[in-house]
Amino acid sequence: MSYSVGQVAAFAGVTVRTLHHYDRAGLLPPSDRSHAGYRLYSEADLVRLQQILFYRELGFPLEEIAVIFEDPQANALERLRARQWELNEEIARLRRLAEVAERAIEVQRTGVPLTPEERFEVFGEVTFDLSYATEAELKWAHSEGQREAMARADAHTKEDWRRLMGEAAAWRAELLAAFDEGEASCGERAMDLAEEHRLHIARWFTSCPPDTHRRIADDFAADPRAFALVVPPSQQRPGLAAYTRDAVHANAARHTGGVTDAQEGR
């Protein structure tokens, strides 16, 4: 028995255009044609279509499905196992993302309520990019320090945030002055400012040993969203993020007895 392209599309829940595409790709050429040249599909074609849709549902591209069909015994099992691993990784990532969303909802419910005017009064121009916050949550998902920082941030009162941001603003003014006056990033003044920033993190969020501070500063130089948490874009200068990173690295080396590239003049 043969079926028209419209009948097959209705059976499978796909569009006629999709069946035409599978035909052009060589995946599902119809077994026959009518006298008028219309495609006619056999029972075997329907079975093949079911296989194509199965692999498509798993996320296989058409090119890979074609390779599997060329030699299903040699390719299918290995490729299915690889796809299973990828899907498990994606499931784990989505679960972590759901946890981030749940935490964000909880913060909105239990956090300090601020009017727009109060928010500007407390945070000024410093903004929190949700995409960066989400990526940071995923990146540091297994970090005890990240969990502690989030818990302590959630517990801060409006007055805590006012004091915290006041400290940050004073530190930022000193950083900008040092940079504008040409102080070396590996000099005493810049390193002292880096140390002050490290202690600020420890005081308000979580313990911040020099190695952790280095990784935080690396993000400042690599991601503008991270540096915007420290210096609002309107106050930034070209090279300031890298300068801050170098100062943090120099200060970390001062604590650990190492030597940075900036200190060696490289």
Automatic annotation (TrEMBL):
Gene3D superfamilies xref list: 1.10.1660.10, Antibiotic binding domain of TipA-like multidrug resistance regulators
Record's keyword annotation contains DNA-binding: yes
Coiled-coil ranges per UniProt: 77-104
InterPro entries (UniProt xref): DNA-bd_dom_put_sf, MerR-type_HTH_dom, MerR_fam, TipA-like_antibiotic-bd, TipAS_dom
Protein origin, superkingdom: Bacteria
Protein's name in the database: MerR family transcriptional regulator
Keyword annotations: Activator, Coiled coil, DNA-binding, Transcription, Transcription regulation
Domain HTH merR-type positions: 1-71
